[in-house]
Write a structure and sequence with these properties.
alpha/beta, 5-stranded parallel beta sheet, 5 strands
């Protein structure tokens, strides 16, 4: 049974809309996890995870590389299969009690986004360390987290937490190249039903922020503008949204 989520996950951030150029391995692993849960320990393809004392997968990379997108995609798939899981964006941790982590070890998958956000907060580092220990004891849940900081980064001030983070397997999520960004924008535009000419796409790519997060936010604004104006997305419309005219 799926627990109520504290946030609504964006429905358009799924595996189909993720351009995996340079990140094929991590996508394959996450899709294998989704397919195998809740009996993931019996899946031969996940033997390398089942052999870990702490079944922890960390998606490591700088901001706006698609790490959260991959967590969303994983949770969306689990929801369709009614597999127990919970997504928490640790950027919001200050609004919660650390007791929100209590009992999560009984789920099939725990998705913790942006765990670097709690680095340096002694109470939350201790709470995350305790959760990891309970997962080790119960041997039921699998944890997938994202972080901008590696496990040995001194920003995590609790040595035992750094040690536990290092017990898992780490996948580096790479930034897309120019061709990959173009494919990602084109794919998302198609999902939104946006009629995007090649000229408008090229203008958008060359005159906006280059990171994926900014590009997708711009595309969402253009979608709204296109609906309001009842017009196909054009170079002129992109210019207006970017304040260039």
């Amino acid at each position: 049974m799926q627990l109520p989520l504290p946030v609504t996950l964006p429905i358009d951030e799924n595996f189909d809309s993720f351009v995996d150029i340079g990140n094929e391995e991590v996508v394959a692993v996450l899709e294998s996890i989704v397919a195998a849960l809740p009996s993931w320990r019996q899946d031969e393809a996940l033997g390398h995870l089942a052999s870990l004392k702490l079944p922890l997968v960390t998606l490591l990379g700088v901001s706006a590389t698609g790490k959260s997108h991959l967590l969303f995609a994983t949770c969306h798939q689990l929801a369709t299969r009614n597999v127990s899981h919970l997504y928490l964006n640790m950027n919001n941790y200050q609004a919660w009690s650390h007791h929100i982590l209590d009992g999560l070890e009984d789920l099939s998958l725990i998705a913790l986004d942006n765990i670097h956000a709690i680095a340096g907060d002694a109470r939350w580092e201790e709470a995350l360390f305790d959760l990891f220990n309970r997962v080790i004891e119960t041997q039921q849940a699998l944890i997938v987290c994202t972080s901008q900081l590696g496990p040995s980064n001194p920003a995590f001030t609790l040595p035992d937490l750094r040690s536990r983070l290092a017990w898992g397997v780490i996948y580096h999520v790479n930034q897309l190249d120019e061709a990959g960004r173009e494919e990602a924008v084109r794919l998302r535009a198609n999902e939104r039903g946006l009629k995007l000419s090649n000229q408008a796409l090229q203008f958008l790519l060359h005159h906006s922020e280059r990171d994926l997060k900014s590009l997708m936010a711009l595309l969402a604004r253009l979608d709204t503008r296109s609906l309001q104006e009842q017009k196909r997305l054009s170079v002129a419309m992109v210019k207006r949204e970017l304040g260039l005219i």
